[in-house]
Amino acid sequence: SEHPNSLTMSVYGPVVKIHPVVLASIGDSYERRNEGASRVIGTLLGTIDKHSVEVTNCFSVPHNESEDEVAVDMEFAKNMYDLHKRVSPSEVIVGWYATGFEITEHSVLIHEYYSREATNPIHLTMDTALQSGKMNIRAYVSAQMGVPGKTVGVMFTPLSVKYKYYDTERIGVDLLQRTRDAPNTTNGLTSDLCQVGGAAGRVQDMLATVLTYIEDVLSGKQTADNSVGRYLMDLVNKVPKITAEDFETMLNSNINDLLMVTYLSNLTQAQIALNEKIVVL
């Protein structure tokens, strides 16, 4: 699923979908940067389709830069990518990232290297220094500009950025959010039943908000919004049409199946443990 409150910068070009593990990895690389380094850079890995670029992984690349020059360990970047391909062959180089708020002159040189490694690579910036008061995340794609036959420059065009996560990543994000207001506290993972209960509670709260909005619109307290109405219509159409009796029968059947599988797995573990003791004797 995708985060609904995504940062939209431009509708030009592909949509960039970023997973939480990428943002966490970039932040960790920045915290572990070499002494005196102002920023860190790295390679972005993921998948590409016709309308979007999905960034699912990344790794940092050692580099040194001064006012006059920039040096990037290209051999390290190549070796790391070869290792990643062994683990996740579907992930390809989709671009590169840099911490900071602005695109520098050195960014153009680094982008030229990644243009040889990927077709139309994206450039991701992450404001780890919180220069704007928050950790802004922006994505760009480059395009040449200038008069034909003359000096050609490079223009970085902003792209739309969205945040996407797998179910397992959502659990980690929720755990981090619980420590947002009290960063010095320690929180552990909750049980599956507690997670289901929490999710059900959040759904109930959202349904209550929707019902309140609908009642206000029907009573004339609030003006109807057509975009909200379309979202509600899509939501209603996605709900399967099933009677309460059929739903209860299906739920009880699935619970019985789950309990049977759990019982068989526990029985198997007991048999294995008993067999091991017999063999030892």
TrEMBL record:
Keywords: Cytoplasm, Initiation factor, Protein biosynthesis. It is found in: Cytoplasm. This is Eukaryotic translation initiation factor 3 subunit F. InterPro entries: eIF3f, EIF3F/CSN6-like_C, JAMM/MPN+_dom, MPN. GO terms for cellular component: eukaryotic 43S preinitiation complex; eukaryotic 48S preinitiation complex; eukaryotic translation initiation factor 3 complex, eIF3m. SMART domains: JAB_MPN. Belongs to the eIF-3 subunit F family. GO terms for biological process: formation of cytoplasmic translation initiation complex. Deubiquitinates activated NOTCH1, promoting its nuclear import, thereby acting as a positive regulator of Notch signaling.
